[in-house]
Structures are given as structure tokens and as C-alpha cells.
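Take a careful look at the protein record below. Let me know whether the C-alpha cells fit the sequence:
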Amino acid sequence: MGSSITLVNNFNIEKVLFNIGEYNDLEQKLINILNVKKIKYYQNINKLDINNKTLYFLNNRLYDNENDNSNIIYLKIDNYKFLFMGDASINVENNILNNYNLDNIDFLKIGHHGSKTSSSNYFINKINPKYSIISVGKNNRYGHPNKEVIDILNNKVVYRTDINGSIKILLKNDKFKIKLINKK
């Protein structure tokens, strides 16, 4: 969210999607810019169709925590299942598991940069991701990813932006390739 205004001011943005909940000060500043630039924005949507693919927004419950109000997005492309967990905590993970049949996820973007508040053993075992991706800065001040999360993912294939650089998943003809860019 911290770079959103820079992105909107320097790139051609068509739409912006916000988390559930009240807008914080930074989001309100962004909305003012979006209004001036006549860029549409949405909040609390159930699905979004893009190029004949549908993004399903699974988190439609309001929590008292901004991280838990994160967009959680499910996407299926060419029989591959993707799940993006935002900054959601274990409480949200449990709610999602209770409301959706999410098993054998092919690609999981680990929640909250691998913090100890996300990615419970129960959740990981239930969705059984083939590949997990942790978006995390190198030597970050929070110590992410947490050792407990790494231990939970021990027998899984894990890519980390702090170790592997940018991670690109290429899909073509029902096959995929994972490409590491700017490997560090």
C-alpha cells in the first residue's frame, strides 16, 4: 500500500481494489488521487473477470484488524489453482477453510510475509500447496519469515523473494515453468 500513490502517478492504472473495512489515511489520500484521475476503485467485491479468467475474493467478513481484512484471492488457470493470502492471520485462514473447499492448491502466496500470525500447520496441511511463495524483504526489521512458518513448510517447495529474487510463474499449454528473476 505504501507505494500505491507512486504507482498511480507513474503507470496507467485502470482499476484499484481495496481491502474490506474503513479506509485508512493513506487509502483516503489514494482515493482523492483516483477521483482526480477518474480511476475506478472497488471494495468488498466477490469476483472480478479479467481476460476470461475469474478472480474470486474469498474474504468477505469484516475483522477488527486491517491485516485480517486483506483481500484473499483464489484463481484457477489451466487447471492450476492459485491462492493469494494477503496479510491474513490464522483466524482468517480458519474462516476461509470453513467456507470454501480449498485443497491441493498448486501455488500459494504465503500470508503476511511468513509471519508467525499466518500459515498455521492446519491450514498448510489442509490446502496442501505444491509450491509456496513468500514475498519478503531481505534482512527485514520484522524477521520475516518466521522460523515456525519455515518449519511448517519444511517438506514443501518454497520460493522466497529475499533469497530467490522475483518469482515468475509462466503457464502455457497446461504446463508451467517457474522463472527466478534477479536471483540474489
Notes: The two ends are 25 Å apart (CA to CA). The first strand starts at residue 15 and ends at 18. The chain has six helices and eleven strands.
